[in-house]
Design goal:
Mean pLDDT: 89
Number of strands: 0
Distance between the termini: 40 Å
Strand content: under 5%
Number of helices: 2
Low-confidence stretches: none
């Protein structure tokens, strides 16, 4: 599938989608992969805003 990435938010969503698919390929369920990837993103956001 091909689509244009119009914004940084779209880019981040696509990046998450690719990571989730990689975990699914390793045998994780979709739900497990989504929770893990979202947890990683939340941790990165917390670190980014806490180091000021």
């Amino acid at each position: 599938m091909t689509r244009w990435v119009h914004s940084f938010k779209d880019f981040l969503g696509l990046k998450d989608y690719i990571q989730i698919n990689k975990f699914e390929g390793l045998g994780w369920s979709r739900q497990e992969a989504e929770m893990f990837v979202r947890g990683l993103r939340a941790e990165k956001e917390k670190q980014r805003f806490s180091t000021a």
